[in-house]
Amino acid sequence: MDKFITLYHGSENIIKHPTFGAGKKNNDFGCAFYCTENLELAKEWGVSSQTNGFANKYTLDTEYLNILNLNSENYTILNWIAVLVNHRLFSIKTPVANKAKRYLIDNFYINVNAYDVITGYRADDSYFDYAESFLNNAISVEQLAQAMRLGKLGEQIAVKSEYAFSKLRFEGFETADKDIYYVKRKDRNNEADKTYFELIEADDDGLYIRDIVRGGITNDDARIPRNISE
Q1: How many other β-carbons are positioned within 10 Å of the β-carbon of residue 77?
Q2: pLDDT tens-digit profile of 181-230?
Q3: Considering the entire predicted model, what is its pTM?
Q4: What is the pLDDT of residues 48-63, one digit of tens each?
């Protein structure tokens, strides 16, 4: 990662001074300021069906920041899932899912609060459904990884620590037209839904969460997909 990176935050508001501690604790990586390096993606995230939005632009000085990249080859897809289930509110439909949640946190969780900045995928809409389906033993870990790749999941950068917030500089904004970017956002989710239904209809003898728990499988198992940005 370069010392200075450009980030965009999609919002219905212009945010000149992001506030440390103001985010929701039940977001993907907990309370943080969620951004992306992709301007077009920020515009999608900034609009709703009713209102235009903004892609707020920032420069972040990353020197001396402790950065966790969950999309690197050092981590598996289960590290990402474990972080999600520890922070997001999942529908736990079965005893299997409840046991799976505990197992994932105990064996795959990364303490994101120990870092200034987190890079990883954004579990919005359909992609959150994928994770929930995996947790409830409906799809295998291989199907989950394949869906993430095919669905062109958006990568986000979460500014976590107060020190990292002090390194953000507002550089202006661009307007996002709802008539353009809400359609793009819906198309992205429609593509994800199509991918999901194709996957669950296919025969699969891969690893399901029940297999992972019963087998005591850990992060060094070669069958667990790594680096889902592949």
Answers
A1: 23
A2: 999 988 887 887 787 778 777 767 889 999 999 999 998 998 898 865 54
A3: 0.90
A4: 999 999 999 999 999 9
